[in-house]
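Hi U.,

Before I forget, here's the chain from the pilot set. I'm dumping it here mostly so it's searchable later in email.
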Amino acid sequence: MTLFVPLSKLQLRMYRNYLRCGNVYGDDNIASNFNVMQPRKICQHPYLFPGIQDEGTDLVEDSGKLGVLDKLLKKLISEKHKILIFSQFVIMLD
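Structure:
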């Protein structure tokens, strides 16, 4: 199964800042790493960036992927399914 999940509002703001300024904070004065990992991290979870968690309101809802996963897990667990989750970002499994 493949699901295409929209970004949360916080992720979308960070992604637009990255495209506009080259960093997730939206500040031209902050040094940023201009590699391909930054947009991937934004799409995983905004809290992977230092200081962003202070802006967030909900660990699950601030990540589009976690929001959908949370809903799927509740349904699958209630139906007694076995579940195996893979991730390229081990920190997302913590």
